[in-house]
Specification:
- By secondary structure, the protein is an alpha/beta fold.
- It contains eight helices and nine strands.
- A hairpin with a 2-residue loop joins strand 5 and strand 6.
Length: about 220
């Protein structure tokens, strides 16, 4: 499985990481995934943004980046000159203060953000590690050494298609990942009475509402 880096990635992203993980009473076998480390930074993607559900509907949280000559994904720097972190923390507080589990994760989550990593790559790795640990997903992540162009199957090809999700998981492109995994089912959301169930949000939404039961939802248990 090949994935791009992502900032508090959406639920389908974590569902893929949980897909190949074996979870049984007597053993846990981790899944494996490759993280694209050799691409150029892609604007308007999940690489520096995520979506949450607040009282006014879906809200985007974005990490501003410093635009420079070198925009390779591991070199992109976070722009800490703007007060985006304060806005992010306030938005999370407002959206999830009444959720069942937010208070259990808030301080640790905000401490990670307050470390203020210089690179977007490092910020995303820390936030992903947080989500994996708290949702109960065990996954071995490896970085790519070289960039490979997106796979385009030849007409008539029926198999051998790799799990390349680098450009499939995108805020402006619908995907069928949850449908394909049999996860088109609602979990509790704070504002569902106002907006109905909203799929495809950041996995933070799943974690704050389902807590340690997140893994049961992701594994259809």
């Amino acid at each position: 499985m090949l994935l791009s880096t992502a900032y508090f990635p959406p639920v389908p992203y974590l569902a893929l990481l949980a897909r190949d993980m074996t979870l049984s009473p007597d053993r846990v076998c981790p899944s494996t995934a490759l993280m694209e480390a050799s691409e150029r930074y892609q604007k308007q993607s999940y690489r520096n943004r995520c979506y949450i559900l607040g009282g006014d509907g879906v809200e985007m949280l974005q990490v501003p980046v410093v635009h420079a000559e070198d925009m390779s994904i591991r070199s992109v720097r976070v722009d800490w000159s703007t007060p985006w972190l304060i806005r992010t923390e306030r938005a999370l507080d407002t959206a999830y203060y009444s959720s069942a589990y937010f208070e259990y994760y808030r301080d640790e989550l905000f401490a990670i953000l307050e470390e203020r990593p210089e690179r977007l790559w490092d910020l995303n790795l820390r936030t992903l590690d947080f989500l994996l640990k708290k949702t109960g997903i065990t996954c071995t992540l490896q970085e790519t050494a070289d960039f490979a162009a997106p796979f385009e199957p030849q007409e008539g090809a029926m198999d051998g298609i790799p799990d390349d999700y680098r450009f499939r998981i995108h805020p402006k492109r619908p995907d069928t990942i949850l449908h394909d995994l049999g996860l088109e089912k609602p979990y509790f959301q704070v504002f569902a009475d106002r907006f109905g169930f909203t799929p495809g949000l950041s996995a933070l939404d799943l974690l704050f509402n389902e807590g340690p039961d997140s893994i049961l939802w992701l594994k259809r248990l």
